[in-house]
Amino acid sequence: MGANVEEPDRKKSSGPEGKWSPEGRWIGGGVLSRIQECCCCFGRAGKETGAVSESKGGAAEAQNSEKKAAAVKRTSIFNEGIALAKTPYDEITIGIPKECGIGNEKRVSVTPQGVASLIKSGCRVCVETDAGQCSNFSNDAYQSAGATVTGNAEVLKCDVILRLEIPSKADIDKMKDGAILLSFIRSAFNPDLITAMKAKKLTVFAMEMIPRISRAQVFDALSSMANIAGYKAVIEAASHFPRFLQGQMTAAGKVPPAKILVMGAGVAGLAAIGTAKSMGAVVRAFDVRPAASEQIRSLGGEPIDLGLKATEGSGGYASTQTEEFQEAQKKMCIQQCSEVDIIITTALIPGRPPPMLFPREAVEKMKSGSVIVDLAANGVAQPENPNWKGGNVETTVPNEVSVINGVTHIGWQDLPSRLPTQSSTLYSNNITKFFLSITQDKSSFCIDLDDEVTRGSLLLWEGEKPDTAKWDEEAKKKREEEAQRATTKEKTEVKISQDTDTALVSTLKTAGVMTVGLGMLLGSGIAAPPAFISQLTTLSLSVMV
């Protein structure tokens, strides 16, 4: 049996598709496949230890394999059967492609400042030519930060792709098999793209799926973009409104302030309320969540109360309401349409089309010259109403500015992109910090599936939908066990403390009695006559004898 015999159909060198390992296992070209290769290398390092003294070349090869592995393989309790190894950051290449989102997309996923933080971790970064041009970030700025500026094909062949908007199918087809993608995905509305990602065996993290918990606020790209959209909605409404927003007293007469209704007091709604109030408008706002009333008042707005109990969804979002609540809400909307000058709608339900709050009959009651900004316009056709293309207002035309019965409708879906520098800066902070957080340590890259933020945002693992429900159940069980151990430890510490206190009290009592006795004896000796002391001494000596 010759040791040098090779099968003729096996590849001898690595390429973009992968290579054969010495154990006869095919290793793909993706970064997760390279993690598998690191595991093989670590196993081979142990076998080669005995041959170190026989060959200097063998020793060098073993040391190189150990260095390449960088750490011991570990298996997460939440991903049975998935072997994870730490991969040095300098073996990972990150691609920043030019965005191809809705309309004239001007944002970029990572700014030069974000590139610098990625390179500081050890990664190599490739940026597509002119990717940040519309956001006022030049190619020279990226090169100065340490990135390589190259073409689209080279960027999409990187191990990790960081992008902002949903990738096109053409871009997915160009990506490396087994690559990692971080982006907005909106999987509920893009099933064809999910199929394409599965075919490429991509590991996908959806930025919109990041849990809304305190620790994950720095990664919350939805809130970052919603904040900008709410601000920009007021600016766009003011530019189309034919009067002042602010009330004024002039020599020509009194100008009343504009009345603005904001539907939904989430991040976008609160940003709109604050901006409109700062511009002098009278602001009313409605949200189904009771807790939102105080937030509305804190920004100077007037909350509208229907007097009915609403159903609140998970994650801070609203949920579908009862028929009675919806009917009362519809009457309120129709009444407000006849009173206000500007309406800004922000109501969304995750994974479902936005609710229609203002039917055509309500819009027809608005005064000529009024403005509607529909932030929920998404262009998704509704089966129950083919004429309604999506959004909170039935008459909104997605991604257009239209005038119906004298009322201007703004249905742009790219409001954050209309402030490209600010949007790109905030999103870059979100996505770079999230990418660096999904690893276990600062020196090597390894997806930490024990982390609830990582698990919550994981859409696909090597082309397969992960069983995150099972992971969450295991995580809950683990937390309960840790809490029980902590309680037991606390009870033990309390018992030890009580025993210590009891022993201390007993010792202090004994010392006190002895002190009092000796004190009394000493006092009697000082006050007694000499004859008494002589007799007491004789008595004491006789007892001892």
Could you walk me through the main structural features you see in this protein, from its secondary elements to its overall organization?
This protein is of the alpha/beta class. The protein has helices at 31-47, 56-69, 112-120, 139-145, 152-156, 169-174, 191-199, 221-240, 267-278, 292-298, 323-337, 360-363, 420-437, 452-457, 468-527, 530-544, and strands at residues 18-20, 26-28, 74-75, 83-84, 87-88, 93-96, 124-128, 148-150, 160-162, 180-183, 203-206, 248-250, 253-255, 259-263, 282-286, 302-303, 342-345, 371-374, 401-404, 407-410, 444-445, 458-460. It has a 7-stranded mixed β-sheet with strand order 8-7-6-9-10-11-22. Strand 1 and strand 2 form a beta hairpin. Helix 1 packs across helix 2, helix 8 packs parallel to helix 9 (267-278) and helix 8 (221-240) runs antiparallel to helix 13. It is extended and about 125 Å long.
How would you summarize this macromolecular structure in one to three sentences?
With 545 residues, the protein is of the alpha/beta class.
